[in-house]
Every structure is written in C-alpha cells, then in structure tokens.
Amino acid sequence: MNIAHLSDLHFGVHDSEAAASLVADVAAAAPHLTVVTGDLTMRARPAEFRLARAFLDRLPSPVLVVTGNHDLPLDSPARLFRPYDRYRAAISAELDPVVHVPGLTAVGLQSMPRWRWKDGRVRRSQVTLVESTFAAAPPGDLRLVALHHPPFGRMLMNGRALLGAGADLLLAGHTHHPDVRPMNGTTVVVAGTSTSRRTRLTPSSWSRIATGDGVITVTERHFTGGGWQTARLLTVPA
C-alpha cells in the first residue's frame, strides 16, 4: 500500500517551481491514496483557494483533504459566522471525509475550530466517527486518520483520545517539519512544507508511506531547486 502525504501548501506564498514539479513526483510513486493535511492557502482568500483547487485536481486520485489553521479567514465576521464556507465552496463540502480503497479505510478530521487561532481540537463526536468507521472496516484493512494538527503537546486538544481510536497511521502537518513517531500503537507521520515558501529546518518536502511485510516505510522527498530527491528513509514496525 502506497500513500502520498502532502501538507502546508500555502498557495498565495507558494514556491511556484516546487508546485509545478510536485505532481509528477507524487504520480511517480503510484499512490493508492493521496492525503493533503491542511493549510492549502495562506489567508483563505478566494484566489488562493482557486489555486489550491487547480493543484488538487492534478494529483493522483483518490485524494483525501482536510482543513488547516490557515484555511479559515482571519477577518472576524467570516471567521465567526462562516468559517468554513470558502473551503466548502472550493475544496469539499465534507469536513470529515471518509475514503475507502481496497485494503485501506481512511478518515479525515477537521481539527481547526473557529475559536482557536493556531492549535487544534478534536471533538468527542469525531473520535466516535473514527471508532465506528474502523469497526465497520473490512478485516485486515489499514486504518488511517488524517488531520492538520499532530497529537504533540498542546497542539491538539483531545489528541490522546484520538490515539486510542484504533488507527494504524495518523497523518498530520502544521509543524512545517517532517517527523515520524510511534505513539500508543499508532505511527504518526508529519509531513513537512510541500509547496509553501514558509519552510522551517527543511526545504519543501512530502512523504511517501509504504506499508507491507509488517513494516511502515516513510520516504521523505525534498525539493532542492534541481528537482525532488530522497532525503531520508525511515522504517518502523507496523
């Protein structure tokens, strides 16, 4: 099973060269599922969402997408009364999407409440959605959760409850730095900054996740200006 994991696109302040070449690099991995864990835009402006939509349409399908903290408008009236309208109109009407492919059951979660500006929260009803979806999944399916905020420290309220919901893989973004951590029986994979110019510690990157033979292999692909290259390969027990 191959999964492509992208995050922090930040269209509006994106690296146009990285964005232009990323689709081909992802497609070469032949993913069974492409996951984008939020921050599609920089300031949730309509023009930025249009750029993000055009980019998503070029990625290998199926594509699972969730919101990030930058995908909610900063202006108070829209954030208070219609925080997800622009995302719903341009990207997806479903904020907690469920995707099934042979051998894989995946749940995406909207982890950015309107009343928090940076860090996130998972509601009890979302944890229940994950539990019920996995309970109904075919035996042997890889169980995956995707959201913007990783369950580290204070970045995600109720993160511990989510880690107990039965996921084999939890994919996140937000930190702008790729990471892989086994946590409570779940392998947490954080993607770096895929196309944004707002990189930290590492250049633009995305993660290829391969599962099989009892292991999970994460290959981090970095953009160097001359193209995409493998920078790090990590293997953890499944």
Task: Give a brief outline of the structure.
By secondary structure, this protein is of the alpha/beta class. It has a single domain, classed as Metallo-dependent phosphatases (Purple Acid Phosphatase, chain A, domain 2, 4-Layer Sandwich). The chain has helices spanning 16-28, 46-56, 76-81, 85-90, 124-135, 159-163, and strands at 2-6, 33-37, 63-66, 98-101, 104-108, 120-121, 142-146, 156-157, 169-172, 179-183, 186-190, 205-212, 215-223, 228-237.
List keywords for this structure.
238 residues; alpha/beta; Purple Acid Phosphatase, chain A, domain 2; 6-stranded mixed sheet; iron; Calcineurin-like_PHP; CNP_phosphodiesterase-III
Topology, element by element:
Layout: E1 2-6, H1 16-28, E2 33-37, H2 46-56, E3 63-66, H3 76-81, H4 85-90, E4 98-101, E5 104-108, E6 120-121, H5 124-135, E7 142-146, E8 156-157, H6 159-163, E9 169-172, E10 179-183, E11 186-190, E12 205-212, E13 215-223, E14 228-237
Parallel strand pairs: 1-2, 2-3, 5-7, 6-8, 7-9, 9-11
Antiparallel strand pairs: 1-12, 4-5, 10-11, 12-13, 13-14
Family: Belongs to the cyclic nucleotide phosphodiesterase class-III family.
InterPro entries: Calcineurin-like_PHP, CNP_phosphodiesterase-III, Metallo-depent_PP-like
Keywords: Hydrolase, Iron, Metal-binding
